[in-house]
Write a structure and sequence with these properties.
Structural class: mainly alpha
Radius of gyration: 32 Å
Strand content: under 5%
Shape: globular
């Protein structure tokens, strides 16, 4: 009995201890939280490379770069992790290279290339880690400068109505329509609420460390005007108009840059590629024929053509795409549905490649047999896989943006009409209801639904939130958010109601809406001009793809026929040239779509068409040189 009681007491004590431990873990959860992989990696990096990281951070002044980039990490930690990542990459690459050189037989040129790649990869990893703060600072700068004119239009309108600076910043920090400016306002609010700064000092601190000179000069000028007792509202209105004019000039120069990028890629990707392909065709065929006369067996080396087609050309295309991406203005609206569809279709595309390869009888290529029949079969299979990979994402992109064409121009007309009606003294709600009966092309469903919602008694905020669902044009969303917050600010507090009364009285005196209308009209005209100028550049790659697909194969056939050898002897070279031309056409299509419609997803259409055109050209050329349909 005594033993049982003692056991019960021990069990009860264990339970009580478990409850106490659980309560302690709940109260002091951070001390009991398991460390993440990033934290363990940081500890390991500091334990091994802290002294090296401190010297690296000091020599490269990483603290300034990290502050400009807005990264929340200590410079020594970042430098130590950089050295650790580079060390792990170097060890991994060197081991993989050593095993490849020992166990995989390869020619001398291939060994040299593998060795160079093994040396270059760690250097690239180290360089990319060091460049990451600069790249993030550049993204931060471009994002803020893209949204700055609209932020200033919004802020100047609110300031004209008497809304305080802190209230404006707090409001922008909660808006989804802004992305880059929202992050900057959140930084300001962090200094205000967490560190006890006043709004002006917090704004100055954020501006002083900012990579954008426009944002820095604008905010420092605002704080100086405010402290010196100047007319802040006039300053903001003048700077808003200057920003819109500067933005128009940037858009004009952007069209010239896009044309230059397309010209560059046409020269490098088409003209230079045709020259290089012809050189590979001639040198490969002549070397194969001369080797055949010596040894009696014709064999062709496709190492250099393979490196050019499958490494140099894709890298060149990616570089041009990145240059276009950097030069184009970015918006907070991201259309991810086409890319999600692309990822989902990727395994289906791979399976379809092997199924088509089996149906067309080209499975011998997996056993090392490579004749013209296998080349043609692989090209058909690759075409099917690429079409499956590109057509559905393009259809998804088209469905998402259905009805968006001409939306910016319609918004410009709508703003002009509203600007004229506001001058008569009508309230903004009455203006929206009156304009809901007019025709504004693709914008008509939006304004009619907004007018109907206001007529039924819904608030302007709720009415516009409902009608803007599904709209992916950031400019239109920003304009209507501006109109909404011009009226609905701050809820129902008495001081805010008084502010709104004064704001409604002075809104008709503002020319911000008219400035937005002029900017929108000019932007619409520039978009039309951009499409007209780039139309020829979009068509030219199609002709280049046809020449790139047909010319080298015809030259190979002429040379091999003149040497008295069958075309089957150079089938590997023909396969590399044909598949390389298809990959080049695919990338050219993506670049054409990115340049003409500002989106890679729009390039899926051109990529599918150019891949199909190139495949048909290659198949027709192979049928012509063989004299029969091989598949």
């Amino acid at each position: 009995m005594v033993l049982r009681l003692s056991k019960r007491k021990k069990i009860e004590e264990k339970k009580k201890k478990a409850v106490i431990d659980k309560d302690l873990r709940t109260i002091a959860r951070p001390w009991y939280r398991k460390p993440t992989f990033d934290e363990l990696f940081t500890v390991a990096s500091l334990s091994i490379f802290e002294s090296w990281g401190a010297r690296l951070a000091k020599s490269l002044e990483l603290d300034k770069s990290i502050l400009r980039a807005g990264m929340n990490v200590h410079p020594v930690i970042y430098a130590s992790k950089t050295i650790m990542i580079t060390f792990i990459t170097s060890v991994t690459v060197l081991l993989a290279t050593a095993m490849a050189l020992i166990f995989v037989p390869m020619p001398f040129i291939a060994r040299v290339i593998v060795g160079l790649v093994a040396v270059v990869i760690p250097i690239l990893v180290f360089a990319m880690r060091l460049l990451q703060p600069s790249l993030k600072a550049s993204d931060r700068k471009s994002g803020v400068e893209n949204e700055l004119p609209f932020f200033m239009a919004y802020a100047s309108t609110m300031a004209k109505g008497g809304v305080s600076l802190e209230r404006i910043i707090e409001r922008v920090s909660t808006l989804k329509v802004f992305k880059a400016m929202k992050e900057e306002c959140l930084r300001v609010m962090t200094y205000v609420k967490l560190f006890g700064y006043d709004p002006i000092s917090a704004l100055e601190r954020v501006a002083l460390l900012h990579p954008s000179t426009k944002f820095r000069d604008l905010m420092l000028g605002y704080t100086t005007t405010l402290r010196s007792g100047g007319d802040v509202t006039h300053y903001m209105e003048v700077r808003t108009q200057e920003l819109f004019n500067a933005r128009m000039n940037e858009v004009k120069s952007m069209t010239e840059r896009l044309a230059s990028f397309l010209e560059l890629y046409i020269v490098l990707g088409v003209i230079m590629s045709i020259t290089v392909f012809v050189f590979f065709s001639v040198s490969g065929t002549l070397s194969a024929v001369s080797a055949g006369r010596t040894t009696g067996a014709i064999s062709v080396d496709v190492t250099m053509p393979s490196l050019y087609n499958f490494l140099v050309l894709p890298l060149l295309g990616l570089v041009v795409l990145m240059m276009i991406q950097v030069s184009q203005p970015k918006t907070p609206v991201r259309i991810m549905e086409p890319y999600i569809t692309l990822i989902i279709l990727l395994p289906i595309s791979v399976v379809s490649f092997f199924i088509t390869l089996f149906i067309t009888g080209g499975f011998g290529i997996l056993r090392g047999v490579l004749g013209l029949h296998e080349v043609q079969s692989s090209i058909i299979s690759l075409t099917v896989a690429m079409l499956i990979l590109t057509i559905p994402p393009w259809l998804v992109h088209r469905s998402v943006l259905k009805g968006h064409k001409g939306l910016v121009k319609s918004t410009a007309d709508y703003l002009r009409e509203m600007s004229e009606i506001r001058k008569t003294g009508l309230s903004p709600e009455k203006c929206i209801i009156q304009l809901s009966t007019k025709d504004f092309r693709n914008l008509t469903p939006i304004v009619s639904k907004a007018g109907a919602a206001l007529s039924l008694g819904l608030s302007l905020e709720e009415a516009l939130r409902r009608v803007l669902r599904g709209i992916r044009e950031w400019f239109v969303i920003a304009i209507f958010r501006f109109l909404t917050d011009s009226i609905v600010v701050g809820g129902g507090a008495p001081d805010i109601i008084d502010t709104l009364a004064r704001f409604t009285q002075t809104l008709s005196e503002l020319d911000i809406i008219d400035t937005l209308a002029r900017f929108t009209q000019s932007l619409s005209e520039l978009e039309e001009e951009l499409r007209r100028r780039l139309k020829a550049y979009v068509v030219l790659p199609y002709f280049g793809a046809i020449m790139l697909a047909s010319s080298p194969i015809i030259i190979v056939n002429m040379l091999i026929t003149a040497a008295g050898a069958p075309p089957e002897a150079v089938a590997p070279l023909i396969g590399v040239l044909g598949i390389g031309s298809m990959i080049n056409s695919f990338i050219m299509g993506l670049i054409a779509g990115k340049s003409s419609e500002m989106s890679v997803a729009a390039g899926f259409k051109h990529a599918a068409l150019m891949t199909l055109v190139t495949a048909l050209t290659v198949l027709f050329t192979l049928t012509y040189i063989s004299g029969t349909i091989l598949v």
